[in-house]
Write a structure and sequence with these properties.
Helix content: over 70%
Largest sheet: none
Order of helices and strands: HH
Strand content: under 5%
Mean pLDDT: 70
Number of strands: 0
Length: about 55
């Protein structure tokens, strides 16, 4: 459970730093970058958090 919380905080901190930069990109490129970052964040979270942690 602690790993889950720490991973969530790490992703939130990374998102807080990166998301303002994606707003400067033009329309569709910004959306694609945001979706890519979300996907990478979810993969990272799934890699750290395993079912036995709950």
């Amino acid at each position: 459970m602690t790993k889950t919380v720490m991973a969530g905080l790490a992703i939130a901190l990374l998102g807080q730093k990166v998301l303002p930069a994606t707003h400067r990109l033009p329309g569709l490129v910004g959306v694609a970058a945001l979706m890519g970052l979300t996907y990478i964040g979810l993969l990272f979270l799934l890699r750290i958090v395993k079912p036995e942690d709950f």
